Amino acid sequence: MHLDHSHTHDGPAAVSADAVRPDGRRRALRVGLGGPVGSGKTATVAALCRALRDELSLAVVTNDIYTREDAAFLLREAVLPPERIAAVETGACPHTAIRDDISANLEAVEDLEDEVGPLDLVLVESGGDNLTATFSRGLVDAQLFVIDVAGGDDIPRKGGPGVTTADLLVVNKTDLAPYVGSDLQRMARDAKAQRAELPVVFQSLRSEEGVSEVAAWVRERIAAWTAA
Amino acid sequence: MNRATLLVLADGRFPAGGHAHSGGAEAAVAAGRIKDAADLAEFCRGRLHTSGLVAAALAAAAAVGVDPLELDEAADARTPSAALRTAARKLGRQMMRAARATWPSAELDALASVRPKGAHQPVVLGLAARSAGLGPEDAVYVAAYESVSGPATAVVRLLSLDPFDATAVLARLAPDLDRVAADAAECARRVPIEGVDALPASSAPLLDIGAEAHAAWAVRLFAS
Ligand SMILES: Nc1nc2c(ncn2[C@@H]2O[C@H](COP(=O)(O)OP(=O)(O)O)[C@@H](O)[C@H]2O)c(=O)[nH]1
Ligand SMILES: [Mg+2]
Q1: For chain B, is the Cβ count within 10 Å smaller at the N or the C terminus?
Q2: Burial of B197: CB neighbours in 10 Å, binned 0-12, 13-18, 19+
Q3: What keywords were assigned to this record (chain B) (predicted)?
Q4: Residue B198 pLDDT more than 90?
């Protein structure tokens, strides 16, 4: 038995984080979107697809809790051709499928690259879970954590791995702040205290700017990934 | 060979996709056949002595070095439900990924390259055991135990069954597990001489029918 990590594989890629595919091409950047149910992850995915699909080759993997609703929504909205959207079944535990046992997600990502590739970007949405759910570094290269102002303006203060460690924290639905009495300044202050230099974006998908700041962040990530 | 390797392979948290599958329990719960711990025990006993036995024998045969492609065909022939063949290959592909990352071997690479979308899970499991330096007597236990631990965990989620009761169900099945493991190992030992026909072919029609129905549901918690 040999546990040599430089072992060469001639079959399909075995190692999750490999940047290069078996055919020698650099694989797509993989970005995860996590956060509580209803915060606007699917809406952000849809908006990102609309913003980026003309300049990048895109695909989406959804991880629903018990349905294919997210995939169905994206299909209905026709943000991408159906063959670019894949749904992973998670046995009621999206956090397991994105963190502890990422095999089904890796296979979905790899199949998309095989079938509709080459791809520049794969967005992986986690079914709404809890504040501790984060993506494995073996599955994604960067992750967004999406919360909304209606879920309570104390979520940034409470922290948790998603809020504190995500590469980008998105505070969504700022248009609703006046109606739910959420203090955006306070959310920004608390987020800063939890995240130090890590970036935070406040957005409303109902506004003119919509997803543009997040899209800009994704473009920067792609540029860095391609240059690496 | 390190004995403790068996614990790594048998760990329910071994990242090979099992958590998303209920082993037919979700369909049985919906049909009202599993309502409590006693029903779960009967369900598990039935699964263990049918598809569990077949899986264990396939795993053992792969662990002793029988051609995995021949075993893969034998597994197909022993899995009448198309939905279950699909699930078994999906899980086999996930097991392959985990095994190649943990116990890399030329034999695993070879099977992965001819079955890129996955061979039947018990076959890959047996080959993983072999690559890990384990023997058929270990492979049978992992396969047999998985055949009941999967449904038990799933029923805890599906029925909010007391997890202590579910674990007690598994504990009470230990003598059955020993018997199935021994039978499966015995069949597998005969395969190099008698061919794959020496493998058991027991099946549970209700599991097959349930799996076909379940695969068509629009809303479900588990993939199978
Ligand atoms: N007012 C408002 N509603 C939003 C915004 N973003 C998403 N929503 C709505 O919030 C609901 C939940 O969004 P969804 O993307 O499905 O949440 P997910 O569970 O995180 O994927 C949907 O009805 C969206 O239309 C926003 O910026 N402002
Ligand atoms: Mg969603």
Answers
A1: N
A2: exposed
A3: Chaperone, Cytoplasm, Nickel insertion
A4: yes
Residue closest via CA to ligand 1's atom 7 equals A40
CA gap A77, A120 in Å, rounded: 21
pLDDT bin (cut points 50, 70, 90) of residue A25 is confident
Residue B142 has pLDDT above 50, yes or no: yes
| CB distance A180 to ligand 1 below 6 Å | no
**How many Cβ atoms are within 10 Å of B52's Cβ, its own excluded?**
30
Chain B CB contacts of A100 under 8 Å are 13, 15, 19
Q: Tell me, what DSSP letter sits at residue A36?
A: B
Residue whose entry in the numeric block shows the structure tokens 């501790």: A132
Q: Is residue B204's pLDDT more than 80?
A: yes
Q: Is the CB of A183 under 6 A from ligand 1?
A: no
Concatenate the DSSP letters of all residues of A92-131 into one string: T-HHIIIII--HHHHHHHHHHHHHH---SEEEEEEPSB-T
pLDDT in the model for residue A2: 42
Asked if A33 and A162 count as a contact pair (C-beta separation under 8 A), the reply is no
Burial B142-174 (b: 16+ CB within 10 A, else e): bbbbbbbbbbbbbbbbbbebeeebbeebbeebe
Domains identified in chain B and CATH numbers? 21-215 (1.10.4190.10)
Query: Which residue in chain A is spatially nearest to B90 when comparing CA positions?
Result: A104
Taken in order of first residue, the domains within chain A and their CATH numbers are: 31-227 (3.40.50.300)
A175 lines ligand 1 (CB under 6 A): yes
Given a cut of 90, is residue A143 above it in pLDDT?
yes
Mean pLDDT of chain B: 97
Confirm or reject contact between A9 and chain B (CB < 8 A). Answer: yes
Q: How far is the CA of A143 from the centre of ligand 2 (A)?
A: 15
Residue A36 annotated as part of some ligand binding site: yes
> Are B110 and A11 inside 8 Å of each other by CB?
yes
Instruction: Enter the tokens of residue A168.
Output: 């980008």
Q: Tens digit of pLDDT for each residue in B156-167?
A: 999 999 999 999
